[in-house]
Amino acid sequence: MSVLTIARDGAIATVTVDNPPVNALSQALRQGLWDAVATLDADPEIRAVVLICAGRTFIAGADVTEFGKPPQEPHLPDLVDRIEDAQKPWIAAIHGSALGGGFEVAMGCRFRVALDSASVGLPEVTLGIVPGASGTVRTPRLAGVEAAVDLVTSGKPVRAAKALSLGLIDAVFADDLHTNALAFAREALTRDLPPPVSLRPITAPNAAFWEDRRKTVTKAAKGAEAPLRALDCLRKAAEAPFAEAMAYERQTFLDLRGSDQAAALRHVFFAERAAPRPAHLRDVGPLPLRRAGVIGGGTMGAGIAAALRDAGIPVTLIERDDEALARGTATLRAIFDGAVKRGKLTDAQADGRMAGVAATTDYAALSDADLVIEAVFEDIAVKRAVLDQLAAVCRPDAVLATNTSYLDPRLIAEGLPNPGRFIGLHFFSPANVMRLLEIVPVPETAPQTLASGFALARMLNKIPVQSGICEGFIGNRILKRYRAGAEALLRQGVPIADIDAAMRGYGFAMGPFEAQDLGGLDIAFLQREGARAAGRDVPETLGDILVRAGRKGQKTGGGWYDYAPGDRRPQPSTAVSDLLAGRITGAVQMDHDAIARHLVAEMAAEGRAILDEGIAARASDIDLVEIHGYGFPRWRGGPMFATGRQG
Ligand code: T1G
Ligand code: NAD
């Protein structure tokens, strides 16, 4: 099947790319475009060319599936130069996303026009590489160096209006992209053409600019290499001739293409596209999810309600009494007000979010809900009572979900009429921010209910991972193993501060002890005490000793570390050394790399057990849980990838 066609309309030709699913620049497409330049240059009737794409989007970039293979001609930078050097000006007409090589092809064109719904970007650093076809050299010639640094080192796309204001594109249309692009081309021919992008001037910032940007990019990169290498390419583009900068960019791209970080990030790229499409749901349609209910307006309930509202889903928020309802509503308002402060929402949008929330203590308000998620106390009796009330008032086909962290969803659903509509939906705090959603069916869960869980994840822009039933599902089970591993090193004499520093050095935002102090040691302590009260043999942990001594973390002024009033910086604690004195029996010395490798191996070992028990469907799902639920550094690929335990 041809990946592009050429049509003629008077003096304007249209090259239409059609290479589903996202018009990626496969070798065949590069060759097709290469040949199209020659064909149209040789056509005396043609004076300009519109490049447009069929399907959902403009060219989404190089074909990521080709990355593991040797580069094939025509190489993309040569193709971009060929389009730029064409005798007739090319106009890129963009819808959907013009990303990576797709936007580089567009920058080889003399003009770029787009639908206002379109976006453009250079996400290469998110794949562990840098743009490899002039992205770091042409972008600053269109938008200036400062904007180019933001675009390239963040990898974040910008919408058409922003791209227009930056000079990345030349016109924005509300609709009728092709018609408007043809008209734009005809009008452009009546004027002097601007110079090709590679010949446009570039203003080199001073050394202080680069020093400042290196600091900010290093901080944002958190150990990822590509953003800093992209910054080097941009400086070269600002200070060296075009050809020299191009050669530098190409060499950097080829260096990084084969790097461990690029391999890890490609692994995550494909893992994120595998998880939401389980094979067993391929032919199962979800239920419509138009109206939702959330029971409990506490930490999680308010976050879940916010996530639903961010997706435009009306929410009925239920609490046990008016006072708790007022607290829950206030928490929800505070979430949206925070988004306004950060510039993520306007005041009107925040008001709109709240307008879509019906807050009440009357369960009857849920009579028309398609989905209800309970996020009440982690207590089986409370949850069962809530489920009984829901069964009495909700439609029999309404999906009923629990957000429990540690309770067995089968026990929560015991006795529930129509149990096929019940499912576990384990959100992570803050529920409107963390992208991970563990989807936990019980044996009775109907396929359509399961498909609805995955559909909800898509609507909320979350990464769904299906989990079997075990204590802590996938994420909290591995967290428990990770913490136990850290405590075991502590018992052997490895200092707390060394263990945290090692995991920060590995790429985590914070180490296991700092994280417990932030979240509170009492959450896991109460879970262990609950298990003990239920007759389970749960050995004492060092954390138990601290909680019993009133050291619950930052919220009590001390946990694994001491904290000065109003100061969240952890300080080594002599009180903790005294409390644990009898338990630290070794004097083991471990360097940070050895500590990190050991603890990641512990996570992967638990992951292997989770796979062997069928709790997780694939190793890459476990990697996604750790990356999107617990801050495992994305550029390491997750514990399974990082330790080579795939398959
Ligand atoms: N190459 C190959 N396949 C791709 C692809 C790509 N670039 N992008 C997406 N796919 C597949 C994806 O695997 C899935 O396949 C299907 O398309 C739908 O994807 C030289 C070197 C474009 C915003 O990083 O951001 O150019 O699972 O579910 O939600 O400088 O895809 O159906 O079989 O994500 O509508 C730079 C990555 C490459 C863009 C669409 N480009 N893609 O989102 O669909 S590096 C990117 C996306 C580069 C140059 C360098 C998104 C999308 P399947 P999807 P979507
Ligand atoms: P929370 O104590 O902050 O909130 C629970 C809310 O439920 C309270 O506001 C309470 O008033 C309300 N509630 C209790 N009984 C009710 C009833 N009968 N009807 C209506 N409302 C009722 O607790 P949380 O941290 O939000 O946790 C809630 C659930 O989410 C628990 O099952 C917990 O395991 C789970 N969870 C918590 C986290 C987390 O990090 N906190 C993460 C994932 C899942």
Considering the chains and any ligands shown, give keywords for the structure.
647 residues, alpha/beta, N-(1-d-carboxylethyl)-l-norvaline Dehydrogenase, domain 2, 3 domains, eight-stranded mixed sheet, six-stranded mixed sheet, 17 strands, globular, binds (2S,3S)-3-hydroxy-2-methylbutanoyl-COA, binds nicotinamide-adenine-dinucleotide
Description:
It contains 26 helices and 17 strands. The protein has 647 residues and is α/β, with parallel strands linked by helices. The protein has 3 domains: 4-258, Alpha-Beta Complex (2-enoyl-CoA Hydratase, Chain A, domain 1); 284-466, 3-Layer(aba) Sandwich (Rossmann fold); 475-614, N-(1-d-carboxylethyl)-l-norvaline Dehydrogenase, domain 2. Strands 12-11-10-13-14-15-16-17 form an 8-stranded mixed beta sheet, sandwiched between helices. A 6-stranded mixed beta sheet has the order 1-2-3-4-6-9, with helices on both faces. A hairpin with a 2-residue loop joins strand 1 (4-9) and strand 2. Helix 4 (135-143) packs across helix 5. The longest helix is centred in the last third of the chain and has 21 residues, at 592-612. It is globular. The two termini are 34 Å apart. The site of (2S,3S)-3-hydroxy-2-methylbutanoyl-COA (T1G) has 26 residues, from strand 5 and helix 3. Residues 295-301, 318-320, 324, 328, 375-378, 382, 386, 403-405, 427-429 line the site of nicotinamide-adenine-dinucleotide (NAD).
